[in-house]
């Protein structure tokens, strides 16, 4: 049920999703910080699974860097768009396959197929059922080679409460506010689609039980989370922006910053 809702939602937002990560300095923080950590941990070359890769922003970036990619997503409209972008960028020889599928069932791929697995910008958050989420985590790990890095970023629960305070303070009295606060679960229907908002310790625990070593947790928007206008203004001043970015990269792995960031990235290595 929630899968259908998610698919319908993203079918209506293909172009917006494609632009999302490069829209402004604020949104680029998520993209650039993720790329920074991909560079830190991915092997120099190899086959990468972009799971829940949407319209293919990371697929194209990594293909340009010389990786071979398999792109998988639930939303066919995203994949059709991605195919056009891949062709436009002349990267068909780098993108081995574009697959319509769910991260909860990667049975199309044998154990240990990929040199790196990325699942970025919240696909795991869109799996509302806890058992299914757990299955998705097992699948993402199963298809990675031993020693391969796995990167998963999700939406954060505390950050969602800040969004409510900032954008819809009158709705704090709605029962949904307490439900999300206490469970992280949002079944959709008011603007956004079905989503599980993670606590950092919850994300960590759900990977810690598996055959992986956790390498880092990162707050992708960091201390600047929710300050879209301030960040975009600051980015226009080269000198100040340089110092902000230096600060961001210095503290984005601090547990407090991780917990309040809009997106939380976990990086682990298959053991
Ligand atoms: C916010 S977008 C992120 C896209 C891309 N990874 C990025 O960071 O730009 C979330 C994507 O997750 C996909 N998605 C949601 N649930 C999924 C599932 N169970 N399996 C695969 N993809 C899923 C959606 O179709 C959508 O393309």
Description:
- The protein has helices spanning 2-11, 14-20, 25-41, 57-64, 76-88, 130-142, 157-167, 175-183, 200-208, 228-234, 238-251, 255-260, and strands spanning 47-51, 68-73, 95-100, 116-119, 149-155, 185-186, 195-196, 212-219, 263-270.
- It has 271 residues and is an alpha/beta fold.
- The protein has a single domain (2-270), classed as Rossmann fold (3-Layer(aba) Sandwich).
- A seven-stranded mixed sheet has the order 3-2-1-4-5-9-8, sandwiched between helices. Strands 6-7 form a two-stranded antiparallel sheet.
CATH overall fold name: Rossmann fold
Number of helices: 12
Q: By CATH's scheme, which homologous superfamily applies?
A: Vaccinia Virus protein VP39
**The CATH top-level class label:** Alpha Beta
Q: Taking strands numbered 1, 2, ... along the chain, how are they ordered across the largest sheet?
A: 3-2-1-4-5-9-8
Distance between the first and last residues' Cα: 34 Å
Protein structure class:
alpha/beta
Helix content: 40-55%
Low-pLDDT stretches are none
Number of domains: 1
Protein name: Methyltransferase domain-containing protein
InterPro entries: Methyltransf_25, SAM-dependent_MTases_sf
Pfam families: Methyltransf_25
Domain Methyltransferase: 48-147
Summarize, please.
This is Methyltransferase domain-containing protein. This protein is an alpha/beta fold and 271 residues long.
Which key phrases capture this entry?
single chain, 271 residues, alpha/beta, Rossmann fold, 7-stranded mixed beta sheet, two-stranded antiparallel sheet, 12 helices, globular, binds S-adenosylmethionine
